[in-house]
Amino acid sequence: MRMAIYSLAIWLTAASAWAVEPPKMRELLTVMGFDVAIGATGHNIRNLKENIEGRTSEFDEVWDRTVDEFFPE
Predict the structure, then answer these.
(1) Which residues contact 72 (CB under 8 A, 6 or more apart)?
(2) Residues 6+ positions from 60 with CB-CB distance below 8 Å
């Protein structure tokens, strides 16, 4: 639950940064550690597939490719 609240706070803060000029927004998000949080999110999502029963190799490939696309390391 705490992680969900933390994630929501990060996303809301990032959304409010859209009103700022792009270079300043990047600086703000970097100072906040947003890039680190997103990196951890990708890693966590990648590992979630381990909890899914009945996975196939095709499913794993699509899952990994999708996570890599949205959360590049």
Answers:
(1) 42
(2) 49
pTM, whole model, 2 decimals? 0.49
Q: Which two tokens stand for residue 54?
A: 């009945």
Residue 61, token pair as written in the block = 């490939």
Helices of type H across the chain: 2-16, 22-32, 34-48, 57-70
pLDDT tens digits, 22-44: 788 788 888 888 878 877 788 88
For 10-30, the DSSP string reads: HHHHHHHGGGS-HHHHHHHHH
In this predicted structure, what is the pLDDT of residue 5?
A: 67
**What gap in Å lies between CA 27 and CA 33, rounded to an integer?**
10
Half-sphere exposure for 30 (CA within 13 Å, toward CB): 6
- Give the integer Cα–Cα distance in Å for 14 and 33: 11
